[in-house]
Amino acid sequence: MGALTAPKLGYNTGYWGSGPPVGALEAIKEAERLGFTSVWTAEAYGSDALSPLAWWGAHTKTIRLGTAIMQMAARTPATTAMAAMTMDHLCDGRFILGLGASGPQVVEGWYGQPYSKPLARTREYIQIVRDVVRRDAPIDFHGEFYEMPRSNGTGLGKPLKSTIHPLRKEIPIFLGAEGPKNVALAAEICDGWLPLFFSPKENAFYQNCLDEGFAKSGDATKRDRFEVACNLMIIPGDDAEKCADFVRPFLALYAGGMGARGVNFHFEVFARMGYEDVALRVQELYLAGKKQEAAACIPLAMVEDVALVGPPAKIRDELARWRETCLTTFLLGGPASLLGTYAEMLAS
Q1: To which CATH superfamily is domain 2-233+315-347 assigned?
Q2: Which DSSP state fits 324?
Q3: Cα(315)–Cα(145) distance, rounded to whole angstroms?
Q4: 3-state percent helix, strand, coil for the chain, nearest multiple of 5
Q5: pLDDT band at 2 (very low <50, low <70, confident <90, very high)
Q6: CA distance 140 to 235
Q7: Residue 5 has pLDDT above 70, yes or no
């Protein structure tokens, strides 16, 4: 895992803006041609992750198709399992089910679902999804958050088994996670981890979290096949500061604008990196509507901890520390015309 082998490359289409991202299909085709091993879609409270993945994935043959991430609050566990089995059949076993709990603003504000105890809720959710996909028996699950069949309904519900047979009885499940307990949970019950903001200097911290999860899983071989697929922003250019300006608004949005004051998991990631004072200032400005000022106060060092910016030679030098981490796949974005350049940088 991680530094034992050279990280693979994946392509991340990211969130849609006001409409579909221009050139996404062209970039996905180019990524497959270049040997990228996976392509990923996202959702929050705009486009969904599954429809674009199915549409674009129909134009591919070998690349794995993943969701980064499907919001658990958006679908019941059974609906998610149905979608996963359907997608897996349609792409001939190339589907990766990336799931995440999101945060209370989206879960309660957009999906109208409760957010309490996200770790315990995630554990139940994934267990049901796995049980549905395995199709070993009708689903008869009675947990704290999910109950199939319901006990307080009409009384007519009965345990059911999926009418379709899965192409694979074990569809890979990756978990989007940032907090230490959630990262450990990913290693315990999932097949992969999808970090959003990862810094090589935090590798030991995250490796400890993963080790805790591996130990709880009871599977001695899990560590060897576990995957960690992480977004890696690459902005090449002569001036590192100017390149960092392309990243600063993104970091400001997550550190300052996502979640609420005191309940922002992205904020906590940057605080653990040693940027709590900066993150507090960013949050203060962003929540006051001063987005440009919030982005401007992010130092170059904070950008360089989570992204590669500056001259190509500098990027190649800094790549060494990324290769020595637990990451197994670098997820890249950008237009088709730049993917070859990025791939060459990462391969050298």
Answers
A1: Luciferase-like domain (3.20.20.30)
A2: T
A3: 46
A4: 50, 15, 35
A5: very low
A6: 50
A7: no
